[in-house]
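Two folds, back to back.
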Amino acid sequence: MQNKKKVSIITALTLSASLLMSACSGSEQGSSSEKPSGEGKDLEEKIVVYSPHGKDILSKFETQFEEKYGIDMEWLDMGSQEILDRVRSEKNNPQADVWWGAPSVNFDQAKDEGLLAPYEPSYAASLDEGFHDPDWNWSGTSQTPEVIMYNSKELSADEAPKDWDDLLDPKWKDEIIIRYPLASGTMRTIFSAMIYRDFKDSGDTAAGYEWLEKLDANTKEYAANPEMMYNKVAKGEGSLSVWAMPDVVMLKENKNYPFEFIVPESGTPVLTEGIAVVNDAPHPKAAEAFYEFVNTPEAAKILAEEFYRIPTRNDIEGLPEWITETEIKSMDIDWTVFQEQSDAWMKHWDENIKSGEKEIKE
């Protein structure tokens, strides 16, 4: 197709130089002029997807979607906050059709700004109330529990902390390595949850800030990116971290890292990853087809088995044991409060709690 996707992205999306390298021309197996079995008969001939899901997931689903519908799929891989900023900047001239992948708080922000179009999918009955917007401006595709991660060569399951407050024990001083929170949605969620535990009843952040101060005292360093954190914990430079459960399982099974996890006994924040149709999408029918396609039971199983995503649909059978045999106690969180307060809470942590001598390790 003569790099058709890359050329069209450059033209239609006016990518900056910094984003050009992350745009992907994708597979050349599909052709918008060859619609197999009439699947895409009444649909537009292309679709543009913004997603943080990465090359592996996006390439796989691009190939499958194009083969089924004969619709030319273009995608742009970038962070969730970057997508929100981009969709916001394109509000008066939308370029994307679908936003696939981001925490629900990002979608709620987009909804409040009129950036999303309501769409109730055919499988709506399989989503519990917490896994979709009340007006169907977005719906959940996967869920991500946050956990305590430990190096199984350094600690046994009995020795590892069992709950969030256990991390504050002085015996863990310089044993904890944490991903720098301001750059990480996962860490912002965990830190905000620790503040929210008391804030939800008292309206006061003092207890939460004190908790973070004690954690900081035990933290050896803040890693600038996830890979640095993974490597340092794997090497035993620190024996503990806090992170997303699916990533811990993936690192253990795919990369043979000596990682195990513990779901905190008192409960844990569980992020809902979602999908949404962009308001005034250029290709709305193709957008709805894609929305349905990546959330079929078959797609959910692929995402669970190959990419370690825990589905939100409650009707998926035959899921991996690491999902079915793990009991998750979800914290009761008002995500609207997170959306309103998280930036201020993280700014306070950065300016008043983080120890000055703890350099962010590049």
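---
second:
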Amino acid sequence: MKSRTRMSDIAEHAQVSVATVSRVVNGTGQVSDETRHRVLVAIDSLGYERPATMRAAEDSVIGIIVPELTNPVFATYAHFLQSEISRANRIPIICTQTPGSTSESDYVRTLVDHQVSGIVFVSGRHADLHGDIERYHRLIELAIPYVTINGTRDGVDAPDFSTDDAAGIGAAVKHLADHGHERIALLTGQSHLIPAQRKIAAFRTQMKSVLGQTDPRIIETFYTYEAGAAGAKELLAEGVTGIICASDLQALGAIRTAHSLGLDVPGDASIIGFDDTMLMAHTDPALTSVRQPIQAIARAAIQTLETQLKGASVQPSRFEYTPDLVVRASTGPVKHS
């Protein structure tokens, strides 16, 4: 720590004693994980460099492998995961993928070469029925623990923590049906991706149960703004009045298309997103969206990984977390002729 640093400043910011700051900085005495985290946050917030002795004392490195960060939901996952890893006194390394760049397999190989202690996979090849899962088998052979987030398939023997897609889609269908909508469509990802597969199955079930429809309209596409815009153009031309999207980006693209066609949202078409990422309450109109419980999923995933790192055995179970439908201005009553 630089000479101008005063432990009293850090102590005041963290609301702890100077002695506690000293114990954290010097790695002596007993300090709870929560208190240590507050002191580290204070050091970082005040712009001080952590002492080299502290950096050397960190226990281990945890890799976080996520898809591209242009989709806000993955940036949100990365944020909460790195926060939980830091709270556990370990160092997070975030690895992001974009088409044509470093692959998940490349990242795994590099992390293993650098003696990573554990890995968190978010919406990776574990959730893709077309994906090669040999890398996961290799991690088990090397006794490197890992957890997956948002979908896993047979053969990937790790704890998985996912949003309950069926619950989210069910709430969205019921919301639109309660507002008089019958011509409802699902705009989702491609069905070889497990979260998309779950949403499609849930949508079929709910449309049959709620509206008696056995062949509801579904478009499988990418989770992007552009794909949402293109899909919505097709659906609105068919007279669909309610669109459930599998991502917020798709929903924003759908709203843009509706506006470009001179349609009012929600007057002419109600649109629902999925994820409820930051700023969705501030779009025009504010987006009704299925909120993924990202912070709860991140906390549970890291706690489970920590259990494995401490030597305990963890079964490859699958845990689902119930999302909330956050109703805003992009949905409303169906417009009757």
